[in-house]
Design a protein that fits this description.
Elements lengths: L1 H17 L30 H4 L10 E4 L9 E4 L4 E7 L2 E6 L2 E2 L7 E10 L7 H6 L18 E5 L5 E3 L10 E3 L3 E2 L2 H10 L5 E4 L30 H4 L1
Parallel strand pairs: 2-11, 5-9, 8-10
Antiparallel strand pairs: 1-4, 2-3, 3-4, 6-7, 6-11, 7-8
Length: 237
């Protein structure tokens, strides 16, 4: 009975830590025998928590919006304080996605590039995270239970990723160790659009601004305006 309680407690701690997952490292796998598997392209189902949980807030729903920016089409702009990500389409339009961002003390900003992409990525916690949470596994094979979700886009020169999540309830919240997370359905959509080498602009954390009139991406960006008309899934897939 005592051993079972310890095992249950350890599993609970691991699941909680996975919710904070982020970063890439060159740590050696702890479970060398565990190998990645090929998983089918992500498909949303009626039992998928993405639609029922993270997508309840209309602001976090994937949709095409009006977006005034000087950035070229194909650029990703991460609006950290407002927990949304824009994929610039050009012509004053962008696709907006709801995201989860770094918790207090783990946000960051800057201009990076997508260095590589991976489907159903393995999770190798960075040494910094292992130092804070030594009970974490050193390696977890990709799959539906992996905290990185269905897709990952690795940001060059950092330990951060734009990735999916198996916990869509965290979308719209400040929960990670610095990575940017989307629902599995949304990250699969974004992954198909983003090219390796794409520019990624991560805006700094400031007081959240929700109104289109007062929202300012940064001093070098034009004010953002958004249409509130949601496009159908078929239109923006």
């Amino acid at each position: 009975m005592f051993s079972k309680s310890i095992a249950t407690g350890s599993l609970t701690a691991l699941i909680a830590a996975a919710a904070l997952a982020c970063g890439a490292a060159q740590a050696q796998p702890l479970f060398a025998a565990v190998q990645s598997q090929n998983f089918p392209q992500y498909q949303a189902t009626q039992t998928d928590e993405d639609a029922a949980d993270a997508q309840r807030d209309p602001r976090l729903q994937r949709q095409v919006v009006a977006y005034a920016t000087n950035e070229a089409p194909g650029t990703i702009v991460v609006d950290t304080p407002n927990t949304v990500l824009y994929f610039v389409l050009g012509g004053g339009k962008a696709i907006r996605y709801g995201i989860g961002v770094g918790r207090q003390g783990f946000t960051w900003s800057g201009v990076k590039q997508v260095a590589r992409k991976a489907e159903w990525p393995d999770w190798i916690p960075p040494q910094e995270m292992i130092g804070r949470q030594p009970y974490l596994p050193r390696f977890m094979a990709g799959g539906p239970g992996n905290p990185l979700g269905a897709r990952a886009m690795y940001l060059g020169g950092t330990v951060y990723r734009i990735h999916g999540t198996n916990n869509p309830a965290t979308i719209g919240k400040q929960v990670s160790s610095g990575c940017i997370r989307l629902t599995n359905e949304d990250v699969t959509d974004l992954y198909a659009r983003v090219q390796v080498g794409a520019k990624v602009v991560v805006l700094p954390m400031t007081a959240p601004v929700r109104t289109a009139q007062s929202q300012q991406a940064s001093s070098s960006y034009a004010p953002v305006t958004e249409s509130r008309v949601q496009m159908t899934w078929n239109t923006i897939r």
